[in-house]
Amino acid sequence: MATIDNPQLIAQEKKILADINEVESELELNQLNFKRAEQLVTDNLVSSSELDRLRILVSRAQARIASLKAELEGNLSRQSFLDIRAPFAGYIVAKRLEVGDLASADAWQKERYFFEIANTIRLRLNIRVPQIEIRNIAVGDEVLANFTGYQNLSVKGHITRLSRAVDEQSGTMLVEAEIDNSDYNLPAGLRGAVSLKLSAGSKINKVWKAPLSAISYHNGHDAVVGVINGEIKFHKIDIVSKTKNSVLLRGDLNDVSKVVLNPNALLIEDS
């Protein structure tokens, strides 16, 4: 994805390699001197203390080589971080780094990033399910997703996770589902609608969304004023959840072409 240039690390590697070559030559010389001393010590031509000194020089050289090789391994490990690789296959959907930019570990905080990658082989759907319908859904239930701009495309998936927490403001619970995108190559971040195909014995009613100003009160119950074939009728509803500007509701509204906003309290149904 990207390579960070760090000439100091490259120079350090060259110096370590040169030091290793130097100490290896020193070790070879010390080993030769030690072998000669071993042969001469039996003839009392070399003292035991001299033999011990040469043995220590060999050990020091070996230890120094081991230390330098460990230092080289650490250097090469740090160099591997200069090549930024994706942890999984996908697409770069956002980047905050251009060729020539200065990248500093101190300047880049946890919430900042070089690249944002999306794995689009499988897409996760975030679905807001009304509180009143939560009991009717379960992990494994089938979903059918339709996306804005792809009206002729319906993609099947399955619920993978229930958040188990209801949002206080919207009165909905976040439900996650996954779809196999390998055959569709859809981009991430699409908006759309989801239909739930529930397990056997489950039943879920259609939920409608309307402006908050469409809600009225009729015959002791919440209602909306709908227009069917040009006639105005009150329709009994059950409110699922409310937000600041809209409401989710259930009711027999399949034949309603539009609803009346801010209906007058003295409004009379068409007979």
Automatic annotation (TrEMBL):
The entry's keywords: Coiled coil
Q: Name one GO cellular component term.
A: efflux pump complex
Kindly indicate whether the keyword Coiled coil belongs to this entry: yes
Occurrences of domain CusB-like beta-barrel (ranges): 125-197
- Taking the record's annotation, the residue ranges forming a coiled coil are 20-71
Q: Which domain of life is it from?
A: Bacteria
Q: Name one Pfam family in it.
A: Beta-barrel_RND_2
Q: What Gene Ontology terms describe what this protein does at the molecular function level?
A: efflux transmembrane transporter activity
Family annotation (Gene3D superfamilies): 2.40.30.170, 2.40.50.100, Helix hairpin bin
The Multidrug resistance protein MdtA-like alpha-helical hairpin domain covers 18-73
Family matches, as PANTHER family: MULTIDRUG RESISTANCE PROTEIN MDTA (PTHR30469), RAGD PROTEIN (PTHR30469:SF37)
Indicate the family of this protein: Belongs to the membrane fusion protein (MFP) (TC 8.A.1) family.
- Please identify the protein, giving its name as recorded: Uncharacterized protein
